[in-house]
Amino acid sequence: MVNDSRGFFTSRVIGTFVNEALAMLGEGVAPASIEQAGSQAGYPAPPLQLSDELNLELMAKIATATRKAVEDAGDAYTPHPAEAVVNTMIEIGRPSRLKGAGFYEYVDGKRAGLWDGLAETFNSGSSSIPLQDMIDRMLFAEALETQKCLDEGVLTSTADANIGSIMGIGFPPYTGGSAQFIIGYQGALGTGKDAFVARAKELAAKYGDRFTPPESLTK
């Protein structure tokens, strides 16, 4: 069962996947490398391609609404680094496939490769991140948001999380789902939830507090 919240479970979780990819682009990572990482992670569509389909103008509206809701609740809003990338793409007139221009070029509505201007716009290639870090940033962002949804009661079971993430938003099926990924995690630091937490802390130290595991995973 999925309960109501600001941004349904699937929207919240897939948003973190896309945002992490856009953050990497803003950091200067080559766009082709980002797409490769998404494909190697097991996603059915790489993140920049997916962003064009989802529409950056819609993402900007969601970010604005989220900021207002957080601030209306009396909390401080911390913008995701992806927001600057979204705003830049909108400003230069490349918001979506629907508008005929995004991260990709489109000819007669058909995708025709990544836009060459990305390199100059975002200083692409100026930053190099290990492929495994890129893959983990995408997977961990979604898994951690899933855990937040469970903690907040937006989701009432891990089974719902796993089914919804695979069937609804394309979380890599080999993981068992975005909740199962946490307890079944396998990586250089070991296996299971404790290894997931340790890796999340590594990512937080390198890439930001958004990867800090919640207390529900560290108890």
From TrEMBL:
One of its GO terms (biological process) is fatty acid beta-oxidation. GO terms for molecular function: enoyl-CoA hydratase activity; long-chain (3S)-3-hydroxyacyl-CoA dehydrogenase (NAD+) activity. InterPro entries: 3HC_DH_C, 6-PGluconate_DH-like_C_sf, FA_oxidation_alpha_subunit. Pfam families: 3HCDH. Residues 7-106 form the 3-hydroxyacyl-CoA dehydrogenase C-terminal domain. It comes from the Bacteria. SUPFAM superfamilies: 6-phosphogluconate dehydrogenase C-terminal domain-like. PANTHER family: TRIFUNCTIONAL ENZYME SUBUNIT ALPHA, TRIFUNCTIONAL ENZYME SUBUNIT ALPHA, MITOCHONDRIAL. This is Fatty acid oxidation complex subunit alpha. It comes from Mycolicibacterium vanbaalenii. The lineage of its organism: Bacteria, Bacillati, Actinomycetota, Actinomycetes, Mycobacteriales. The gene is fadJ_1.
